[in-house]
Amino acid sequence: MEQSRIRNFCIIAHIDHGKSTLADRLLELTGTVLKRDMKAQLLDRMDLEREKGITIKLAPVRMEYRGYELNLIDTPGHVDFSYEVSRSLEACEGALLIVDASQGIQAQTLANVYLAMAADLTIIPVLNKIDLPAADVEAVGAEIVSLLGCKFEDILQISAKTGVGVAAVLERVVSDVPPPLSSTLPETRALIFDSYYDDYRGVILYVRVFDGAIKKGAPIKMLNTGAPGIALEIGALKPDMVPGTSLQAGEIGYIVTNLKSTRQAKVGDTVTLVSSPATLALPGYKDVRPFVYAGFFPQSNEYYQELKDAIEKLSLSDSALQFAPENSPVLGFGVRIGFLGLLHMDIVRERLEREYNLDLVVTNPSTDYQVSLLNGEDIDIKSAADLPDPAQIKEIREPWIKGEIVVPQDYVGPVIQLIVGTRGLQTNLSYVEQRALVSFEAPLANLLTDFYDQLKSITSGYGSFNYELNEYRAEDLVKVDFYVANERVDSLSVMVHRSEADRLGREIVDKLKDVIPRHNFQIALQAAIGGKFIARADISAYRKDVTTGLYGGDVSRKKKVLAKQAKGKKRMKRFGKVEIPSEAFTVMLKRD
Predict the structure, then answer these.
(1) What are the E-state strand segments in 153-273?
(2) Strand (E) positions, 144-218?
(3) What angle do CA 93, 99, 105 make, to 5 degrees?
(4) Tens digits of per-residue pLDDT, 283-314?
């Protein structure tokens, strides 16, 4: 196909604004998928994506329309998967910005617009769901005009569900999105914007060719990792794989390689030919850095190897997943995994439980901390249990984020109070029509558990939230340990700011009291910073009436039996084993 007749574009939007539904209509309209093969959310291949109604993995597809080759990439809308969006934008020249006519501009809409502008893409604004009774086309259109600086007439008004106005979207893509630029470089360069591992075929790369061409059977090489491979099969996704002979400059397609791990062909890397290798890599390569960590343990230690194998298999198709073995005196052997956010963690947990039939215990999520020691050494810790002796520590730095919250103007006060309550700092307040954009900075650890739930609660569901990692700041942080029946449970330890330690210690001790069942002896639950206890709660023992069989006689008989029982309980308290249920390790996620 001539470069002048190729159009590469992606769909960007906030979560649940209708990206996948619009992609379905475009596939139908261009005849890429037959009516009888059509189903809702066709590009969402995972069961989880269909059930939750969200896109987790980006999905490319090639369509033919009036002699043009249209390459579409459907992207995720959730903040946890914004890296998927950023690399999709690198592979395109244009973007369809979808805004829900009933909800208006949300935080992730803004974040994606900034990403598209940074990538210098042509943005086509599309107002979706105009058929809903709650749709306010005038007001939301005014928001888009003030955000993009376009004219109201430039905004396409559609209903992706009913198909109204969708044909105009294709016309605008053909007329407004520029064709790929012809390159003068003789070397071949292609950007990997996604990769996954197939059990039967090896690593499959989704690429956009910028310079030259890649032919079937050609020896290839990754510029950043240096891994050599062979292009065993080359083709386009329509949306199933359709093999071809080559991929030319400007085209988007797939390459089946003989590589054994996605670690060798990382997302954002540049593919070149071994015969005439390029020296300059394409922009867009960066290592994905997880900033939420949680311990995953099997219910029984005998399933540890199965858990380890399952995570290794899953990491082959999820390049953002990073893991290391972990050992806990209470939970046994497990794995500490790094995630891009809480939704990413939830998705991975569900996939492990469904696809590999595992029963898991997941510990409270935490972030990583940078610790400077007095001897000049710097270490990175992923869990509070790894913190060295406080006497050796010079300072502890925790990650802070830059965040943006978009809410209707009436909710600005409660939102600012919520930010201050998380030790956050409000940095800016601006207005887009009837909506307020609150910019702030806050420690990531305080947003991990229930910040999003609280935001939805105080804004009646209208608030939306987007964030990115900013920097590490030195703070007065302490490790709070928890003791169950005088035994420290490392898996429950948390890092917290000193000013919040007492409140958090009391909260978690009370939660543990509700979760841990009663035993035949009294159980003491305590929170401590170093050697100083800051909170305590007791779970009272079951009382068994040992005097039921005694009738009449001297009172000393009763006293004798009760004294024997008291002696037994005292011994039990010293040697009895407390059964800690798995819910106890996720009490942080279940704050009121």
Answers:
(1) 156-157, 189-198, 202-211, 213-215, 219-222, 228-230, 233-237, 241-244, 246-248, 252-256, 270-273
(2) 156-157, 189-198, 202-211, 213-215
(3) 110
(4) 765 667 787 888 888 888 888 899 888 888 88
The 10 Å CB-count burial string (b at 16+, else e) for 301-323 is: eebbeebbebbeebbbbbbbbbb
| Signed CA dihedral, 451, 452, 454, 459: sign only | positive
C-beta separation of 475 from 398 below 8 A: yes
Asked if 227 contacts 192 with a C-beta cutoff of 8 angstroms, the reply is no
Structural tokens at position 358: 């595992």
CA 234 to chain centre: 31
pLDDT of residue 199: 78
Do 402 and 470 form a contact (C-beta atoms < 8 A)? yes
Tokens read off for 450: 């229930």
Residue keyed to tokens 């009837």: 434
Q: How far apart are CA 115 and CA 43, in angstroms?
A: 23
Among 31-35, 73-77, 310-314, 334-338, name the one with the lowest average pLDDT.
31-35
**In Å, how far are 57, 194, 204, 262 from 287, measured between CA atoms?**
18, 13, 19, 13
Residue entry with tokens 């004798």: 560
Alpha-carbon dihedral 107, 111, 112, 114, rounded to 10 degrees: 140
Q: Which amino acid is at 250?
A: G
3-state secondary structure of 162: coil
User: Which residue is associated with the tokens 């039996």?
Assistant: 561
CA distance 421 to 284: 37
State how far the Cα of 415 lies from the Cα of 421, in Å rounded to an integer.
Answer: 10
* CA–CA distance, 39 with 514 (Å, rounded to integer): 46
| Six token digits for residue 470 | 């900013």
DSSP letter assigned to residue 187: S
Under 8 Å CB-to-CB from 253, ≥6 apart: which residues? 62, 206, 207, 209, 234, 235, 236, 237, 244, 247
pLDDT for position 440: 92
464-475/393-408 β-pairing: antiparallel
User: Under a CB-based contact definition with an 8 Å cutoff, are residues 336 and 323 in contact?
Assistant: yes
Cβ contact 89:120 at 8 Å:
no
- Amino acid of residue 225: T
Distance CA 334, CA 351 (A): 17
Q: Which amino acid is at 561?
A: V
What's the pLDDT tens digit per position in 450-499?
A: 788 788 888 887 788 888 888 889 989 899 998 888 888 888 888 889 98
Question: What is the phi/psi pair of residue 504, to 5°?
Answer: -65, -40
Query: Structure tokens of 466?
Result: 């987007």
d(CA 12, CA 19): 7
Domains of the chain are 3-176 (3.40.50.300), 189-273 (2.40.30.10), 292-365 (3.30.70.870), 370-475 (3.30.70.240), 479-590 (3.30.70.2570)
Taking Cα atoms as reference points, which of 294, 298, 398, 304 lies closest to residue 343? 294
Residue 164 DSSP one-character state: B
Residues 6+ apart with CB under 8 A from 250: 3, 6, 8, 179, 180, 209, 210
Q: What are phi and psi of 145, to 5 degrees?
A: -60, -45
Report the alpha-carbon distance of residue 253 to residue 274 in Å, rounded.
20
